[in-house]
């Protein structure tokens, strides 16, 4: 299978190589395309930096990447990289997308904001099954533990190919002999980081992000991760909810012309960031 590896920590993150090497060892055709700079918290944003209408690629190779795997640095958010890859931007359209390994856990409803998960959600909306992997540390040490879990997760993904679903995996940063195993988990009510407004002034607001210690409900991803388990959760992109109450409706005289085509501006699907620099 053709496998695209991306992340939100950037092309220089060692987690990229760990995930890419697992896919390569499994016999897949692997290509790495990751942001040229960090895009943590980008969710599924289609932000990219363009020059003359062209999305720019820059040299880059994650440390520890196995020889023979092509790698690109891209001046774009990870979800845009996944979107572009589905149209052949980095060679043949991938059969699978693997996102991570993220530096820090992506648990609970905070997964909404994750660029790692956002890339995977972007892929599945294009019909590409995806895996998002995160490690519960900002500076992981036990990459070998993550490798073990990723091998199992990738094998499951290739055997099941879940349609319209992302397999979201979190791994504790502990040694292999301390890992209790891999468990299916539901999302916690909140993630591992809490935001707060620290200070406000004339024309500005300072927001802080801090790791929190809280009692998570047993069976949730955050709880199991704290207790030495790797976790696996199936996520899906936005979907129609037919439940009550029904959304509001109204009808105008134009409804008498139902069936006639109406010209509608589709707007922009991508935003340009600042002009790229060599920094």
Can you give a write-up of this model?
The chain is 20% helix and 27% strand. The chain has 279 residues and is an alpha/beta fold. It has one domain (2-241): Survival protein SurE-like phosphatase/nucleotidase (Stationary-phase Survival Protein Sure Homolog, Chain: A, 3-Layer(aba) Sandwich). Strands 6-7-2-1-8-9-10-14-11 form a 9-stranded mixed sheet, with helices on both faces. Helix 4 links the parallel strand 9 and strand 10. The longest helix is centred in the middle third of the chain and has 18 residues, at 143-160. It is globular. The model is unreliable at 274-279 (pLDDT under 50). Its EC number is 3.1.3.5. Residues 260-279 are annotated as: Disordered. This is 5'-nucleotidase. Pfam families: SurE. It catalyses: a ribonucleoside 5'-phosphate + H2O = a ribonucleoside + phosphate.
Using brief descriptors, characterize the structure shown.
single chain; 279 residues; alpha/beta; Stationary-phase Survival Protein Sure Homolog, Chain: A; nine-stranded mixed beta sheet; 5 helices; 15 strands; 20% helix; globular; disordered C terminus; cytoplasm; metal-binding; SurE-like_sf
């Amino acid at each position: 299978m053709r496998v695209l590896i991306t992340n939100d920590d950037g092309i220089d993150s060692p987690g990229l190589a760990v995930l890419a090497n697992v896919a390569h060892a499994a016999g897949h055709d692997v290509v790495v395309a990751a942001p040229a700079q960090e895009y943590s918290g980008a969710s599924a944003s289609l932000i990219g930096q363009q020059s003359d209408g062209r999305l720019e690629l820059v040299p880059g190779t994650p440390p520890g990447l196995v020889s023979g795997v092509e790698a690109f640095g891209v001046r774009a958010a990870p979800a845009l990289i996944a979107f572009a890859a589905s149209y052949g931007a980095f060679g043949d359209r991938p059969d699978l997308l693997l996102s991570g390994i993220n530096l820090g856990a992506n648990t609970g409803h905070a997964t909404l904001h994750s660029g790692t998960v956002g890339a995977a959600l972007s892929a599945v909306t294009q019909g590409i099954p995806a895996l998002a992997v995160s490690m519960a540390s900002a500076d992981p040490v036990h990459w070998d533990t993550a490798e073990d879990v990723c091998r199992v997760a990738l094998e499951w993904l290739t055997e099941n190919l879940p349609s319209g679903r992302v397999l979201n995996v979190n791994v504790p940063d502990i040694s292999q002999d301390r890992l209790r195993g891999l468990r299916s988990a539901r999302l916690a009510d909140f993630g591992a980081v809490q935001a707060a407004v620290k200070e406000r002034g004339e024309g500005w607001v300072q927001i802080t992000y801090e790791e929190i210690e809280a009692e998570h409900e047993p069976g949730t991803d955050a709880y199991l991760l704290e207790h030495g388990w790797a976790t696996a959760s199936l996520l899906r992109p936005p979907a129609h909810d037919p439940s009550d109450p029904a959304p509001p409706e109204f009808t105008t005289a134009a409804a008498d012309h139902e069936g006639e085509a109406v010209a509608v501006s589709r707007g922009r699907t991508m935003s340009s960031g600042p002009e790229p620099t060599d920094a």
